[in-house]
Amino acid sequence: MWVSSTTHDIGIEFSQENRTFIHKIDPHIDGERAKVVSDLIFTGKVVSVALVDRPAVPKESMNATGDKLLTDGRMAVLVLGAVEQPSRLP
């Protein structure tokens, strides 16, 4: 099983509170989910894909640095086929 979470960085900002730079993310987090799914499908090893509803997930929230997060609340579940083991070099 492989579990992943991802966001798309769209900029940086200086945090006066933390006195450091922080990254800014695209608030539409489902777009990055779609990119990861698409990249995995491109490998040719994906057997099936489903988007699973998670009704308890809020559709709108914020991360720790105040960035807005917007989602449909679904989680992508992919079944991967067998991967051949690379042959060892002599």
Task: Write a structural description.
The chain is of the alpha+beta class and 90 residues long. The protein has a domain at 28-80. A two-stranded antiparallel sheet has the order 1-2. The protein has a two-stranded antiparallel ribbon with strand order 3-6. Strands 4-5 form a two-stranded antiparallel ribbon. It has one helix at residues 30-42; strands at 9-15, 20-25, 46-52, 60-62, 68-70, 75-80. Helices cover 14% and strands 36% of the residues. The two termini are 31 Å apart.
Key words describing this protein structure:
90 residues; alpha+beta; two-stranded antiparallel sheet; two-stranded antiparallel ribbon; 1 helix
Strands in their spatial order, largest beta sheet: 1-2
pLDDT < 50 runs, ≥5 residues: none
Number of strands: 6
How big is the Rg? 17 Å
Average per-residue pLDDT, rounded, comes to 89
Q: State the end-to-end CA separation.
A: 31 Å
**Mind summarizing the main beta sheet?**
2 strands, antiparallel
List SSEs in N-to-C order. Answer: EEHEEEE
Shape: flat
Summarize the structure.
By secondary structure, the protein is an alpha+beta fold. Helices cover 14% and strands 36% of the residues. Strands 1-2 form a two-stranded antiparallel sheet.
